[in-house]
Amino acid sequence: MSKTIQIASPGQFSDLLKSSRIVVTDFYADWCGPCKQIAPIYEQLSASLSRPNHIAFVKVNVDTQKEIASKYAVTAMPTFMIFKQGQVVEKVQGADPRKLQAVVRKLAAEAEGGSSSSGFGGSSGSGGWRIGDLPKGYGDVTDQVDVKGLELLNSDSQFGGVRVLFESSKPTGLAKGKAAESKTKDWVESDTDEQLMMFMPFQATLKVHTLQITSLPATADDDDEDEVPMRPKTIQIYPNRPHILGFEEADDIPATQSITLTEKDWDSTGTATIPLRFVKFQNVTSLVIFVVDGDGEGERVRVDRVRIIGETGEKRDLGKLEKIGDEQGE
What we know:
The structure is a single chain. Mean pLDDT is 84; it is low at 113-127 and 314-330. The protein has 330 residues and is of the alpha+beta class. It is built from five helices and 17 strands. It has two domains: 5-116, 3-Layer(aba) Sandwich (Glutaredoxin); 139-312, PITH domain (Jelly Rolls), CATH 2.60.120. It has helices spanning 10-19, 33-49, 66-71, 97-112, 247-252, and strands at residues 5-6, 22-28, 55-61, 76-77, 79-84, 87-93, 139-140, 151-153, 188-189, 196-214, 232-239, 257-260, 271-275, 284-294, 302-303, 305-312, 322-323. The strands form four sheets. Strands 7, 8, 10, 11, 12, 13, 14 and 16 form an eight-stranded antiparallel sheet that branches. A five-stranded mixed sheet has the order 1-3-2-5-6. A two-stranded parallel ribbon has the order 4-17.
């Protein structure tokens, strides 16, 4: 007998997210050929890994449950989302059996290992390195960033590009042992001075509740403190700009919100959680984040990760859902 749960209402899905620690969700449509092709594999995973109140496998028909599909910005079939403690931690688009099996079994193994971390989960399963709880009623919407449209001004090319800021993987700055010896510079540093200007467009209209910025400057090994990058201090935020601002242009435009961070704002993972004036960030299609200066006397600022917490806009055109083929899998 199948253990997969067919979702019949938004309330049923919401209750399940609260009652089961991990919820694997198959967003499908009856007219979608690739959805039918991968369905037997999904059922096999469900039969072998389902555990009451712990790991649940569900199916959501996007044609009959449009409210749920809209809430999670599902625009292509099939889409698989894995929720951990009510938040999306993995997303797989397309009929890719190997990738689906890999991410599901990985999370199931973590659950079997008794992991009880309440850390934030990103858009991939390695995002649980953050600490604290998400604001009630809101989730991680970083996966709505349109990475193709990202821009970053005054960044040093010796370090990671702007896309690295939105990865959910644990920064190497937090790694220990052999991982700490990695030469991968998975962070961003400013170049000619301490200022950074970033433009991030979104794939959907968002309600942005909170920003999280992670900064992990290294400890100085010598007396030259100017060589050690600083954490951001003053940050200005501009929503709904059509393009990135120039530094002089930003001086002439009042920011919608300006934040000054102090040492006590950074937690043990090097992350500062910045609540926004929510009423000012209700219908956001893009954000410009301007790091005005750093906290110290150095000449460079370092940023490792950026995370956006909020809610995806409800207005989606579900009439233009795509079919995603199974060319990635066999």
